[in-house]
Amino acid sequence: MKKNYSTLITIVLIIVFGLFQYSYFQKVNDVQTSVGQVMNEIRMIRNDISQQIYQLNAEKADYILDGIIFNDSKFADDKKKYSTQMRITFSKLPADAKYSLEVLEYSEHYPVQNNRYGPYNAYIDENVKQMEYSAIKTVTLTSDQKNVYTADLNLSYEKNYEYTFVIETPTQVFREKLGAIPVLEWMDPVYNAEVYYNELGVRSPDKGYINYNINVYRALDQSYGNLLINDKILIYPDNEWLNSKGISSITYKVLYENVLIKEGILKQSHDTYSFNEIYEAHDTAKFTANINDDLNDKFIFEFTITDTEGKVTTFDKKMNY
Question: Membrane-spanning residues where (predicted)?
């Protein structure tokens, strides 16, 4: 009999514990649901506040630039001009203003800046020269609807261009930098190289050894170019420029104290995370050096780039340490 009572008590306790667990988890679920609802309400309130702040700022703003689009972008058959129509849209403009589009031209390449960590992490080089622009020119604007202005641009392949929209009221002048169209960089690209060693030294008398990595890439890059030319915002009418001038081959030579120790060919990287073309090599070279020699600054990497139109460009680079 006692055994039956014990079994019955055990069963009852199990049922009670199960009901308690069910009730506990049900309450937890209810609390979680309530917390989720509260968080959704907080998000909605935040969105409402953000919209209200935006509307207040918009009401106070003298003008609001919505964006820029391009129409009929094309390269001229004579390989001398790039033409496009810039269409600038505002959602708000002062009614009593005069509007104009200013352009600065630059007939040299943007300064190539040093980069210690590859093409994705550029920094400003203190030695970059100050750019010397042409005199400011004014481009004619037309308007086919309210707050929309267009300009027909015919751009020489030998220049880079930077644009500013000017709003002139009786009491104030506003200047909105629209960005740069770097035609010269597209049509005659400058390339930069980063060279690093994985292993370098003299293992025994007269037996030097270097294992190196090379990256060569277009100095002005579609996705990271704004880092490479200081504060310039790049604007791209389309991606047709990517095919304007391709690379046929890149070869390189490694020299130690002006003695050739290695030569090879760079291969294009298949990095899908960059719009930029990157060519690379990973190899080893042996050289003659005293075991006590200071190896720094004695290596020179020479590059020869041949584009699809047959133009040959050469440049050299020291090791990045």
Answer: 7-25
